[in-house]
Amino acid sequence: MSSIEAAAQVSNMYDTVLILDFGSQYSHLITRRIREAGVYCELLPCTQKISELKFKPKGVILSGSPYSITDEGAPHVDPEVFNLGVPILGICYGLQEIARNLGGETSLAVKREYGHAELHLDPQADHHSYKLFQDVPSPTNVWMSHGDHLESPPTDFVIIGSTSTSAYAAVAHNSLPIYGIQFHPEVTHSVDGALLLRNFVIGICQCEANWTMSSFIDKELERIRTLVGPTGSVIGAVSGGVDSTVAAVLMKRAIGDRFHAVLVDNGVMRLNECEQVKKTLADNLGINLTVADASELFLGRLKGVTDPERKRKIIGNTFIEVFEAESHKIDEISRQSGLGPIEWLLQGTLYPDVIESISFKGPSATIKSHHNVGGLLEDMRLKLIEPLRELFKDEVRALGELLGIHEDLIWRHPFPGPGIAIRVLGEVTPSQVQIARLADNIYIEEIKKAGLYRQISQAYAALLPVRSVGVMGDQRTYEQVIALRAVETKDFMTADWFPMPIETLKRISNRIINEVKGVNRVLYDVSSKPPSTIEFE
Fold first, then answer.
1. What is the mean pLDDT of residues 89-96?
2. pLDDT band at 90 (very low <50, low <70, confident <90, very high)
3. Which candidate in 28, 149, 173, 184 is catalytic?
4. 186 assigned to active site
5. Is the four-CA dihedral 138, 39, 212, 281 of positive or negative sign?
């Protein structure tokens, strides 16, 4: 691996734990808990070939799965994982996968176990498994979610924990650092689960707990400089949101004037977005900014399109085309000024986007393509650089604070790359965009006035493809419906709907119906993720 290739891997800059995902809805939580312990980790699908792994992990975690280990077509790990010579922890299905590979027996449980259980521990103080449960009290409350169970452990494994229904709730190899647990330590219902995972990654895997945003900044700046080189220039996809702004500030710090920010007006941005972005990035942060008005091009290509996936693909591809065109112009200027050719495209991809795009394609197959990682042109001339690709949203915000970005911008709610196009359900037209845009602006104004904005992770108004009967004045109306969405979440992988105060909803509904022509009904979405997604499309 060359120095440039090595620089492209954050896993080469930190002690890294590998999480192999078997399709569990909880897999991303394992990643979160380990990051919270100050240890870097990466999640890859369980089908990952160990010989093709680009880094040597300090430890491996095998996740749970919606599959039964006995199902035909059930996912299985590359057996070479057991030859890596590093500690391994199997969680739920991961425990059964360890048993399958090392000689144990699993079977369908007489009764599926789902919910709280009391785990009684029996690790010997002189046995290496003691480190896994160090400082964990016995008994401790854990969360079970399984239909299979371990019938008999593999040879040379010892029992270190049990519940009233699972005799082998926790097992360990007699001499090797291989552990299996039937419960899910990554969920908050497992009271001491975070401590167990910390014990594994720090106490057993011997990872250095140095994953912080303050340590990330200098290493990421150096990585960017190595990737781009002393003469290369970068064109950046900016929108004024926290992700693209943090990425842009990071890029400017790394390569200075060789970073060129481009804001594409795609015709489906929020109210007065372009003006606000110009003021924030160009005037306040001193970033080179070019505004490309391509609204007619985007809306023209979206005409007649109702399928959400087609919308995303069209917008993603058109974005790249516009960037290509702008990069040619900036490239010529950059070459003439001696700053070097435009070779790279900046994107603010975050780790949840990556996880949903690479997770094991079983029952948890990708729900939708993401604007940051899907729908890109195959013949894209520019190389992609994604400085935030390994970060969760809360990590990006912490990074933004360290970079000195104003808190109002850091805490701004996320806005999707396809913009209002996926908040106008059905055909996207200028008039429909304007209705959604005005309703959304009123909604955000009111939750800010009510002091609720920072309590909500994301809020927006969507225009539904239905009409309803109403009465305004003395006339019957047959107009459109706005749906309000507001969620609470820490990582955007799961989310709960926000309990909006009734009086606030009354004010919002009254303003939208009175101020936005063409709307006579307002609804509030009370769906969680899963099963729903945060965006309607």
1. 93
2. very high
3. 184
4. yes
5. negative
What DSSP designation does 139 have?
Answer: S
Cα gap 75→457, rounded to integer Å = 34
Query: Does 184 qualify as catalytic in the annotation?
Result: yes
- The type of residue at 513 is I
Strand partners, 468: 479
Asked if residue 425 lies in contact with residue 273, where contact means CB atoms within 8 angstroms, the answer is no
Backbone angles phi, psi at 487, to 5 degrees: -130, 155
Residue among 268, 270, 352, 247 nearest 314 (CA): 268
Q: Confirm if 345 and 372 have CB atoms less than 8 A apart.
A: no
The model's pTM is 0.76
Instruction: Indicate if the pLDDT at residue 87 is higher than 80.
Output: yes
Among the listed residues 97, 113, 186, 395, the single catalytic one is: 186
pLDDT per residue as tens digits for the range 244-274? 899 999 999 999 988 999 999 999 999 998 8
Q: Could you tell me the pLDDT band of residue 516, with boundaries at 50, 70 and 90?
A: very high
What is the band of 134 on the pLDDT scale with cuts at 50, 70, 90? very high
Distance CA 427, CA 307 (A): 9
Whose tokens are 């040879």? That residue is 155
Pairwise CA distance, residues 487 & 495, whole Å: 6
Q: What is the pLDDT of residues 162-211, one digit of tens each?
A: 888 888 889 999 999 999 999 999 988 898 999 999 999 999 999 999 99
Q: Is the peptide bond before 416 cis (omega within 30 degrees of 0)?
A: no
Q: Which residues of 196-209 are buried (b: 16+ CB within 10 A; e: fewer)?
A: bbbbbbbbbbebee
- Give the integer Cα–Cα distance in Å for 113 and 146: 6
CA distance 27 to 491: 13
* pLDDT over 80 at 378, yes or no: no
- Tokens found for residue 44: 């890859």
- What is the DSSP track for 159-213? EEEE-SS-TTSEEEESSSSEEEESS-TTSTTSTTHHHHHHIIIIIIS-------H
Do residues 248 and 256 make contact, with C-beta atoms less than 8 angstroms apart? Answer: no
Q: Cα separation of 144 and 411, whole Å?
A: 35
Select which of 28, 41, 42, 92 is catalytic.
Answer: 92
Q: Cβ distance 142 to 116 under 8 Å?
A: yes
pLDDT of residue 113: 63
What gap in Å lies between CA 32 and CA 394, rounded to an integer? 10
Burial of 424 per CB tally in 10 Å (0-12, 13-18, 19+)? buried
59-62 and 88-91 as β-strands: parallel, antiparallel, unpaired?
Answer: parallel
8 A C-beta contact, residue 277 and residue 263: yes
DSSP state of 283: I
